[in-house]
Amino acid sequence: MTTLSVEIKPQQQTGLVTTPELKKYYDELRPVFCPYLNDQIHFTPDGWYHLHHYVDRKPRSDRMIRVKIRLFRKYAVGTLRKAHTLQEHRASLHPVGNASRDGLHTTKLFQYFAFEDVDLRNRISYRIIIRKIGDGQHHFWSIIPTWRVETKNIPKSIGRIELEDE
């Protein structure tokens, strides 16, 4: 009998972006109670994956991963614990699983909840996105920096990304 040996290579990422310590920190996070949702927010592998990849599974740039991880470590848990106001809510049906014999897909309601916060001392604003699929649990989905430029010391927003896409 012959055995086949296959080497599985990890995704190409620099040590500065994702380290075993960061992954361990994320994995060991306990659920956080969010007052607005009156529910626990869980930190699932989906959220970790989404910090590193876009919805279409394309990897994010190292720069964007660094920004998201830095924001996550510094702000996510604290902001969710004190979130009393929802800035945006979106809901839409999406197909899940494989199509049945008749070609139809089962659909579930995907809900996205956005909470914004500002760190005035560091002049940073960001959004935390929480996702809920069907009757499942609320889980961390993403943290999005609100990109800004300043012209003559007047902040000007230069755009937003859709909640589902980010």
Question: Can you put this structure into words, describing what you see?
Answer:
The longest helix is centred in the middle third of the chain and has 21 residues, at 62-82. The chain is of the alpha+beta class and 166 residues long. It has helices at 20-27, 45-52, 62-82; strands spanning 32-34, 39-42, 88-96, 106-119, 124-133, 138-145, 148-151, 154-157. The protein has one domain. Residues 1-16 have low confidence and may be disordered. Helix content is 22%, strand content 34%. The protein is built from three helices and eight strands.
Distance between the termini: 48 Å
Helix/strand/pairing class, anyone?
A: alpha+beta
Overall residue-averaged pLDDT value = 82
Query: Largest beta sheet: what is the strand line-up?
Result: 1-2-6-5-4-3
Order of helices and strands: HEEHHEEEEEE
User: How large is the radius of gyration?
Assistant: 18 Å
Strand content: 25-35%
How many structural domains can be distinguished in the coordinates? 1
Total helical elements = 3
The major pleated sheet works out as: 6 strands, mixed
